[in-house]
């Protein structure tokens, strides 16, 4: 994992948004109060291992935040919420109206 302490917040978000699967995951998490990697994996039809890896990257860079954990069948299920607030990043994800336009 790269040393994200040396990157600016903007560079970190650009890094996160540069991967199409992370974009897809972020859009799914943004649409829910909380979402687990397993639930996201089932929705977007991508292998849980890949989705889980990208959830960990997104959490490390604070694009998503751990909300709660729940014991399930001998392991822990983790639930996350969307944590990006920068307007340009929300716009890049299609989660905010383009600059200069008001929400309708």
Structure commentary:
The chain is α+β, with helices and mostly antiparallel strands. The chain has a single domain, classed as Arc Repressor Mutant, subunit A. The chain has five helices and two strands, in the order ααααββα. It has helices at 9-17, 20-30, 37-44, 48-60, 87-92; strands at residues 64-72, 75-82. It has a two-stranded antiparallel ribbon with strand order 1-2. The model has no long low-confidence stretch (mean pLDDT 90).
Low-confidence stretches: none
Give the ordered list of helices and strands. HHHHEEH
Helical coverage, percent range = 40-55%
What is the end-to-end distance? 40 Å
Please give the radius of gyration in angstroms: 14 Å
What is the number of E strands? 2
- Overall geometric form: globular
CATH class: Mainly Alpha
Q: In CATH terms, what is the architecture?
A: Orthogonal Bundle
Q: In brief, what are we looking at here?
A:
It is built from five helices and two strands, in the order H-H-H-H-E-E-H. The chain has helices spanning 9-17, 20-30, 37-44, 48-60, 87-92, and strands at residues 64-72, 75-82.
């Amino acid at each position: 994992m790269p040393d994200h302490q040396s990157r600016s917040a903007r560079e970190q978000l650009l890094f996160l948004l540069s991967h199409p699967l992370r974009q897809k995951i972020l859009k799914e998490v943004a649409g829910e109060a909380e979402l687990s990697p397993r639930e996201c994996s089932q929705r977007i039809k991508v292998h849980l291992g890949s989705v889980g890896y990208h959830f960990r990257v997104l959490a490390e860079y604070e694009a998503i935040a751990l909300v709660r954990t729940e014991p399930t069948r001998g392991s822990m299920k983790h639930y996350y919420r969307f944590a990006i607030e920068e307007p340009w990043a929300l716009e890049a994800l299609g989660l905010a109206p383009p600059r200069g336009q008001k929400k309708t």
